[in-house]
Amino acid sequence: MKERHVLFEKYEMGRLLGKGTFPKVYYGKELTTGENVAIKVVGKDLVKKKGMMDQIQREISVMRLVRHPNVVELKEVMATKAMIFVI
């Protein structure tokens, strides 16, 4: 049986959907509602090393403001010491 990877007791992380320069995006599921989500995972060390922390913060700020049926909704942002998780 496959081991489940659960984030913050809220989201189950599934298969890799794609990856970019910094982040990787995984399929996920919200445990309470069963809703499908995308989980963008960004390593803090790499972002800091490349001087991209301001850009990541701006991206999150803009995503919080945008409400449109053709744009993915930002559910929440969570972090550990090493990683940022954008749901």
What this model shows, in words?
The radius of gyration is 13 Å and the shape is globular. Strand 5 and strand 6 form a beta hairpin. With 87 residues, it is α+β, with helices and mostly antiparallel strands. The two termini are 26 Å apart. Strands 1-2-3-4-6-5 form a six-stranded antiparallel β-sheet. It has two helices and six strands. It has one domain: Phosphorylase Kinase, domain 1 (2-Layer Sandwich). This is CBL-interacting protein kinase 25, SNF1-RELATED PROTEIN KINASE 3.25.
CATH-scheme architecture: 2-Layer Sandwich
The first-level CATH class name: Alpha Beta
Largest sheet: 6 strands, antiparallel
**Helix content class:** 10-25%
Percent range for β-strand residues:
35-45%
Gross geometry: globular
Low-confidence stretches: none
**Based on helices, strands and strand pairing, what is the structural class?**
alpha+beta
Mean pLDDT: 89
N-end to C-end Cα span? 26 Å
Number of helices: 2
List the helices and strands in order: EEEEHHEE
Tell me the CATH superfamily: Phosphorylase Kinase, domain 1
- Radius of gyration from CA coordinates: 13 Å
**Strand order in the sheet with the most strands:** 1-2-3-4-6-5
Please count the beta strands (DSSP E, at least 2 residues each). Answer: 6
Enter the CATH topology name. Answer: Phosphorylase Kinase, domain 1
What's the number of structural domains?
A: 1
What are the main properties of this structure?
6 strands; 22% helix; alpha+beta; Phosphorylase Kinase, domain 1; 87 residues; 2 helices
